[in-house]
């Protein structure tokens, strides 16, 4: 029996999800003291509180961080939600490599930024080195699929705004693209999980999954989809869209699992499910980071002797960069200072 699901609003679901990503202003100031201890001050602001509480993990109250949440109103009447956090790092204690607790099962899915402070004694004084590495966020493979959706959706919206007549053939075309991309994304996460949990498995075991997903894609009634999308109500249906997206994910995963269970080479699908959830979560966080804006300042003891930051004022070096800069690339922050004898 083939799996099926309500594809009627899937394209609308995908378009709405793409519109829900909010922008965060992330400002972090790190104060390095002469004894090697440090203080981290973080301020995160955004118009939607969900952007702070969901997506990339932020410092939580009750642990190592002192956290305060507040709201302010701009002159234009907008509500800005704010999270401020402070953490003291004793000398010799490792700096945090993410804002998630290490005990969290998904800790590695969140933004990773291993950081260290080292001290070095030389003839002319003490040298202090601050180094942080933002680890690359895998994006391009899935992003390529989503870019195709974005381009098509933008052209589609522009044509609608101009008052041009759009026929059912065009609605059917965009429906086919959106469904293909939605399944393609899940297949990418599943493939990663499969390689990690089913090593040395003959490739036809995976190709059976690929074939099952192709059959699932072909089973959609695209003619009906075209009509439904054309006549779709434009009111806010975010809760419905989220429910439909969850239903879509469930049926697609059921198709993958049921196919794997027919393979004599796959005995336990529990580990596969866990790794799939990890890769899906990691990508969702990466996508959310894309329109965030980062500002990191490091105050060093003594005199700055070298750095790779954007600006330096006295003994403070600052880096500013967009979240998209983390896509598929490493970002390093380095600064060295000297305290003379």
Describe the structure.
The protein is of the alpha+beta class. It has a domain at 10-19 and 140-287. It has helices at 10-19, 49-53, 140-161, 168-197, 203-218, 222-230, 238-260, 270-289, and strands at 25-32, 38-46, 66-73, 79-89, 115-122, 125-134, 293-299, 303-307, 311-313, 316-322, 331-340. It has a 7-stranded mixed β-sheet. Helix 1 (10-19) crosses helix 7, helix 3 packs antiparallel against helix 4 (168-197) and helix 4 (168-197) packs antiparallel against helix 5. The longest helix has 30 residues, at 168-197.
What is the overall silhouette?
globular
Give the DSSP E fraction (strand runs of 2 or more residues): 25-35%
Number of strands: 11
Strand order of the largest sheet: 3-4-2-1-7-10-9
Q: Return the structural class.
A: alpha+beta
Radius of gyration over C-alpha positions, nearest whole angstrom: 24 Å
Q: Name the assembly state.
A: single chain
Elements, N to C (H/E): HEEHEEEEHHHHHHEEEEE
In short:
By secondary structure, the protein is an alpha+beta fold. The chain has helices at 10-19, 49-53, 140-161, 168-197, 203-218, 222-230, 238-260, 270-289; strands at 25-32, 38-46, 66-73, 79-89, 115-122, 125-134, 293-299, 303-307, 311-313, 316-322, 331-340.
Please name the defining characteristics of this protein:
single chain; 341 residues; alpha+beta; seven-stranded mixed sheet; four-stranded antiparallel sheet; 8 helices; globular; disordered N terminus
What topology does this entry show?
Layout: H1 10-19, E1 25-32, E2 38-46, H2 49-53, E3 66-73, E4 79-89, E5 115-122, E6 125-134, H3 140-161, H4 168-197, H5 203-218, H6 222-230, H7 238-260, H8 270-289, E7 293-299, E8 303-307, E9 311-313, E10 316-322, E11 331-340
Helix pairs in contact: 1-7, 3-4, 4-5, 4-6, 4-8, 5-7
